[in-house]
Specification:
Layout: E1 3-8, H1 12-15, H2 17-22, H3 26-37, E2 41-46, H4 56-60, E3 64-68, H5 78-90, E4 93-97, H6 104-110, E5 117-119, E6 125-129, E7 143-146, E8 151-153, E9 163-169, E10 175-184, E11 187-192, H7 205-218
């Protein structure tokens, strides 16, 4: 069984009645609920937990980490970011959602600013499936239509994705690379744009399906983690 940890800074839900109504269990709770229905083993963690809920033991037991953050990126401990980074290199999957593009861990893994254009105008979003044979889009049609979603627009300052899975379009004319995969060390990373806290994107069945598919795709396989440092020769010269 794939073990998933859903991490959320859990700040909007404590401060905003509007967000509380949409996500009474927190964004992490809403995501955890649909993951559990898909038979994943799920735990949650938040910023204010001890070690942000991401202890060495928790991460050692995590196959895929899901990350949602927005207003408190700088409150995340650098030591915890380093710990998560190492686990990704070792093979833990990482799914970064919405404004998690500005998280310390995503920027560390990307090596760029990860900046973009944005606008909250309450308008709709059409997410185009541009990689129809990819495992992440299994069961997804040509598009996902969301009644409301925050506009994210290009240029998105990320490295060229290893795989582009989704491109989003907005009524203002903007487009955005909204579903991207990256490989770092033994780990697989998926960035997925939907999920603004005042819009109910995580109730959309197609969005849920994408995230569940991404968990399966990102879960580590039995791949050997390389040995580094000094290395004895495999081939021995004949003694003379």
């Amino acid at each position: 069984m794939i073990q998933v940890t859903v991490w959320n800074e859990f700040r909007h839900e404590k401060r905003s009645e509007e967000v509380q109504k949409l996500y009474p269990k927190g964004i992490h709770g809403a995501i955890a609920d649909f993951l559990k229905r898909d038979d994943f083993v799920v735990r949650t963690a938040t910023l204010d937990d001890a070690e942000h809920g991401l202890t060495t033991d928790v991460l050692a037991e995590t196959d895929v980490l899901i990350w949602w953050g927005h207003v408190a990126h700088e409150e995340v401990s650098d030591a915890i970011v380093t710990r998560v980074h190492q686990r990704v290199l070792e093979g833990m999957g990482l799914i970064v959602l919405h404004s998690g593009h500005f998280s310390k861990i995503f920027k560390k893994l990307m090596g760029t600013s990860c900046d973009l254009k944005w606008r909250e105008d309450g308008k709709h979003c059409r997410i185009w499936n541009v990689n129809p044979s990819h495992p992440i889009v299994e069961g997804i049609g040509e598009t996902i239509d969301l009644a409301q979603e925050e506009m994210y627009g290009e240029h998105f300052d990320i490295p060229t994705p290893d795989e582009l899975v989704f491109v989003s379009w907005y009524p203002g004319g903007e487009v955005f690379r909204s579903g991207c995969t990256f490989f770092r060390g033994n780990g697989k990373i998926f960035y997925f744009q939907p999920g603004h806290e005042t819009y109910n994107s995580y109730a959309n069945e197609s969005v849920q399906r994408v995230i569940c598919n991404a968990v399966r795709w990102a879960a580590p396989k039995d791949h050997l983690y390389p040995a580094y440092g000094h290395f004895d020769a495999l081939e021995k010269e004949d003694e003379k």
